[in-house]
Write a structure and sequence with these properties.
heterodimer, A: 424 residues, alpha/beta, Aconitase, domain 3, five-stranded parallel sheet, 14 helices, B: 162 residues, Aconitase, domain 4, seven-stranded mixed sheet, 19% strand, binds iron/sulfur cluster
Chain lengths: 424, 162
C-alpha cells in the first residue's frame, strides 16, 4: 500500500504497518518541545496532581524564549520557575534564553527525519522542514505527553503543495508562504498534513524550508512537511545528530493525496500582507503606501541567519530612513554569533538598526520592542492578528526580510528589488 | 452513552476568539465564560443550561490553540458540540476537557431550541421534535475513554493508578 510521509511516520510511531486517514491511533512521542510560556508553569500542577514525573527527560527539549529576557517581576518569576522545573526534572536539553524554540531545537540536533514530535506552540509545524511529523498541542495535552510519552492522533490526509520554477533575486520563501495564504486561505489546511514538494522546494536551504513549514500553521494544517533529502541530512549531521534512514521517510510514488495545489515560483513577486491577516497578501507593487513606525526583523519565521543576510544584502551601504526605527531580534544566540562572524551584523548595525536580545521579542507582544497604540509595524514575522505585537490598536503588515529592510531604508513599503546591489 | 438536550444553533467558522474572547483571557475562567460567544449571541452565556448542546456549521473552534475555548463551554454545562467539521486543535482540546465534539455532516434540519438525542458511540442524532434521525461519525473508543473519565487529566489519573 502506497503511503505519504505523514502516514509512514505516524504508522511507525503507532507501532503499525499502515494507517489510514481518519484512523485514531496512539503514538509514542519521539520529542516533546516546550517553552517557558506554555510549558512548566502549566504542566507542573498537572504532573503534581497525577503524582508523576516526566516520562523521559532525554526526549524533552525546554526553551525559555517567550518571556526572555524578562522585563518585570512577573516574567522573571516565569523564567525562574522554568529553571527550577528543569533542574527538578533533570531536563538536560534546557536552553535558557538561547533563542526561539522552533530554531534552537533543530540547531542543537534534536530533530531528525521520521520523528513523531509535538510542541507546546502553534508554530511547531516548523519541525516538518526536517522531515519530522511535528505539530502543536495545548497545555493539558502536553502535560499528558510529559507524563506518559504518548498522545493520540487522527491520521490526517495529505495535501500536496507543489512548487516549480525559480524565484528571482529579492524574493524568498516568506513570499511563497504569504502567496499561499492569499491564494488558498487560512483554512485550506483543514488540520490535515501539508506536504511541500517540487523542484523549487528541493532547491531551498533548510532555513527557507523552515519558513514554509512554520507558516503551515497559517494555512490551518496540522503540520507542513518537506521531504527529507541530501540537504536535510547534511543539516542534521552538522547539528550533531544522526539523520538515520531518512530515505525511508519519503512519500511513495502513487500515494493518495487529498488534493494537490500547483504554484509557479518563476513569476512570484515580493508579497506584503496588510493587517490583520496573512491572507491579505498582495504583490508589493499593489500594497498600500501605509505609514510605518517600526520595521521589525524577528521571530522564528523571519530572523534566521539567511533572513539576516537577506536584510544585510539590502542594507549594505544604506541607512534607515530618518525618524524610522529598524528593530532586529536574531532568532538564536548561535545565529547572532555567526552573523557577527560573517559580517552580516556589522552591515545591519551600520545601517542604524536597533538590536534586541534573541527570543520571541515583539512578535507576540510578550517581550521587548512592542508597539504603542496606533503604531504600525512592517514585520518579517508570521502573524498579523489585531494587536498581536502590542497595543490593541497597533497594526502589523507582513513581508520578507528583504522587503522589511528595503522599506526601512525608504521609510515606506518598498520593492526590495529596487535596492539590491551596492548602494549608489 | 446517550445525551438528550436543547439545541443552541450557530453558523460556520465560530472561532476560538469568539468563544473565549482575548481581552478576558487573563481573567478567571468564571468571568471569561460570562463572555463566551457574546459577539454571536449575547444571550448565550446567561441562558445556556447544563445539558444544552451546540449545533453549528463547519469549522467550529477554528483559530488559536487556547484550550480555554473548550474549557469555558464545559464550564457552562454544554454537553456536546456537533458540527460538520472542527478546528483541529479545538477538537483535541475539547476531548481533553471532557467535552464531546461530534462530526456530523447532516446538521441542516436541526434548529435552535429543538430537543435532540445524541448516541455518542453509536453515531446517530435524533431530532425529538421532528422525529428525524441522521448519522454522525461515531466517537472512537479512545476518545470515548476521555469523555467517560471527564477529560485527559482525570483519565490519566485513573490510568496511572491502575
Ligand atoms: S517568534 Fe513569534 S511565532 Fe515564533 S515562537 Fe515566538 S511568538 Fe511564536
Amino acid at each position: 500500500m502506497q503511503q505519504t510521509i505523514a502516514q509512514k511516520i505516524i504508522a511507525k510511531a503507532a507501532g503499525a504497518d499502515y494507517v489510514s486517514p481518519g484512523d485514531i491511533v496512539t503514538c509514542a512521542v519521539d520529542l516533546a518541545m516546550i517553552h517557558d510560556s506554555g510549558g512548566p508553569r502549566r504542566a507542573k500542577p498537572i504532573l503534581e496532581r497525577l503524582g508523576v514525573g516526566v516520562w523521559d527527560a532525554s526526549k524533552i527539549v525546554l526553551i525559555s524564549d517567550h518571556y526572555a529576557p524578562c522585563v518585570d517581576a512577573e516574567s522573571a518569576a516565569i523564567l525562574k520557575l522554568t529553571r527550577e522545573w528543569a533542574a527538578e526534572h533533570n531536563i538536560l536539553n534546557f536552553y535558557d534564553q538561547q533563542g526561539i524554540c522552533h530554531v534552537v531545537t533543530p540547531e542543537r540536533g534534536h530533530l531528525c527525519p521520521g520523528m513523531f514530535a509535538v510542541g507546546g506552540d502553534s508554530h511547531s509545524p516548523t519541525g516538518g522542514a526536517f522531515g519530522a511529523y511535528m505539530f502543536g498541542i495545548g497545555a493539558t495535552d502536553m502535560a499528558g505527553v510529559l507524563a506518559t510519552g504518548e498522545t493520540w492522533i487522527r491520521v490526517p490526509g495529505t495535501i500536496r503543495i507543489h512548487w516549480t520554477g525559480t524565484f528571482g533575486p529579492g524574493v524568498a520563501a516568506k513570499d511563497m508562504a504569504l502567496k499561499m495564504c492569499a491564494e488558498l486561505g487560512m483554512d485550506a489546511g483543514d488540520y490535515q498534513a501539508i506536504e511541500y514538494g517540487g523542484d523549487t522546494i528541493a532547491g531551498l536551504g533548510m532555513m527557507e524550508r523552515m519558513t514554509l513549514a512554520n507558516m503551515a500553521a497559517e494555512l490551518g494544517a496540522q503540520t507542513g512537511i518537506v521531504e527529507p533529502d541530501e540537504t536535510t541530512a547534511a543539516y542534521v549531521q552538522s547539528a550533531g545528530a544522526d539523520p538515520g534512514d531518512w530515505q525511508a521517510f519519503r512519500s511513495d510514488e502513487g500515494a493518495d493525496y487529498l488534493t494537490t495545489h500547483d504554484f509557479s515560483a518563476n513569476e512570484l513577486e515580493p508579497q506584503v500582507a496588510a493587517p490583520h491577516s496573512p491572507s491579505n497578501a498582495v504583490d508589493v507593487g499593489d500594497a498600500d503606501k501605509a505609514h510605518i513606525d517600526q520595521f521589525y526583523i524577528g521571530a522564528c519565521t523571519g530572523a534566521k541567519l539567511n533572513d539576516l543576510e537577506m536584510a544585510a544584502s539590502v542594507l549594505k551601504g544604506r541607512h534607515v530612513a530618518p525618524g524610522k526605527r529598524l528593530t532586529v531580534a536574531p532568532a538564536s544566540a548561535r545565529i547572532l554569533a555567526e552573523a557577527m562572524r560573517n559580517g552580516t551584523m556589522q552591515i545591519i548595525m551600520d545601517a542604524g538598526a536597533n538590536l534586541l536580545p534573541t527570543g520571541c521579542g515583539a512578535c507576540a507582544g510578550y517581550g521587548v520592542g512592542t508597539l504603542a497604540e496606533d503604531e504600525v509595524c512592517l514585520a518579517s514575522t508570521a502573524r498579523n492578528f489585531q494587536g498581536r505585537m502590542g497595543a490593541k490598536t497597533s497594526k502589523v503588515y507582513l513581508a520578507s526580510p528583504y522587503t522589511v529592510a528595503a522599506s526601512a531604508v525608504t521609510g515606506t513599503i518598498t520593492d526590495p528589488r529596487d535596492l539590491l546591489g551596492d548602494a549608489p | 452513552m446517550t445525551l438528550t438536550g436543547r439545541v443552541w444553533r450557530f453558523g460556520d467558522d465560530v472561532n476560538t476568539d469568539v468563544i473565549a474572547p482575548g481581552i478576558y483571557m487573563k481573567s478567571p475562567l468564571q468571568e471569561l465564560a460570562e463572555h463566551c460567544l457574546e459577539s454571536v449571541d449575547a444571550s448565550f452565556a446567561s441562558s445556556v443550561q447544563s445539558g444544552d448542546i451546540i449545533v453549528s456549521g463547519k469549522n467550529f473552534g477554528m483559530g488559536s490553540s487556547r484550550e480555554q475555548a473548550a474549557q469555558v463551554l464545559e464550564h457552562l454545562g454544554v454537553a456536546a458540540v456537533i458540527a460538520p467539521s472542527f478546528g483541529g486543535i479545538f477538537y483535541r482540546n475539547a476531548f481533553n476537557w471532557g467535552l464531546p465534539a461530534i462530526v456530523c455532516a447532516a446538521v441542516n434540519g436541526i434548529e435552535m431550541s429543538q430537543r435532540i438525542e445524541v448516541d455518542l458511540a453509536g453515531g446517530s442524532i435524533t431530532n425529538l421534535d421532528s422525529g428525524i434521525s441522521v448519522a454522525s461519525d461515531a466517537i472512537p473508543d479512545h476518545l470515548m475513554g476521555l469523555i467517560d473519565a471527564g477529560g485527559l487529566v482525570p483519565y490519566l489519573e485513573k490510568k496511572l493508578k491502575d
